[in-house]
Amino acid sequence: MQAVKRNKDRFPQDFLFELSREEIMRISQTVISLKFSKNVYAFTEQGIAMLSSVLRSKRAIQVNIAIMRAFVKIRDILASHQELANRLAELEQRMDKKDQEILAIFEAIRQLMAPPPEPPKRRIGFLGE
Predict the structure, then answer these.
(1) Of the candidates 40, 39, 61, which has an alpha carbon nearest to the alpha carbon of residue 51?
(2) What region does 125 belong to: left with phi over 0, alpha with psi -120 to 50, or beta?
(3) If I label 29, which of 35, 66, 89, 121 is the partner at 20 to 30 A Cα–Cα?
(4) Is 52 helix (H, G, I), strand (E, B) or coil?
(5) Dihedral Cα 53, 59, 64, 66, nearest 10 deg
(6) How far apart are CA 47 and CA 4, in angstroms?
(7) What is the pLDDT of residue 1?
(8) Per-residue pLDDT at 58 exceeds 70
C-alpha cells in the first residue's frame, strides 16, 4: 500500500476504492487477516494494471500477472454467458412461433382422427295420423 500512497496520482477513484467495514467482514470469512485491518482497499482492473508500474518485487509482479489473467478469464466467461443468453432468447422466440405451428398440426390431426359425425337417423314409417 505504501507504493500506492507514494504514487497517488496514478490511482484515481475508479482504479482503487476503500471497502466498508461490512464488506471487509464479508470477505474476512475467507481471508482471516482482513478481519483486523482498519483500511482495506480494492483495485479495479485498471488499478491492477497500474500496480504493475509501481510494484517492483518479483512476487508482486507474478501476483499482478495472475490477477490480470483472472480478469481476462472473468471477462471471457461473462461474454460467453451473454452470448449464451442471447442464443437462448433467440431460440425461445423461435420456439414460440414453432409451438403455435405444432399445436395447429396436432389440432388438425385430432380433427382427422375424430370419427365422422353420424348422419341424422331417418324415421321409418308414416308421419301423421
Answers:
(1) 61
(2) left
(3) 66
(4) helix
(5) 150
(6) 10
(7) 73
(8) yes
- Listed residue (52, 62, 22, 24) closest to 40, CA to CA: 24
Question: Is the pTM higher than 0.70?
Answer: no
Task: Read off φ and ψ for residue 41, nearest 5 degrees.
Answer: -110, 150
In single-letter form, the type of residue at position 21 comes to R
Q: Where are the domains of the chain?
A: 1-55, 71-113
Map residue 18 onto helix, strand or coil: strand
Which band of pLDDT confidence, cut at 50, 70 and 90, is reported for residue 35?
Answer: low
Grid coordinates belonging to 21: 467495514
Cα 121 vs. chain centroid, distance in angstroms?
A: 66
Q: State the first-to-last Cα distance of the chain, in angstroms, to the nearest integer.
A: 116
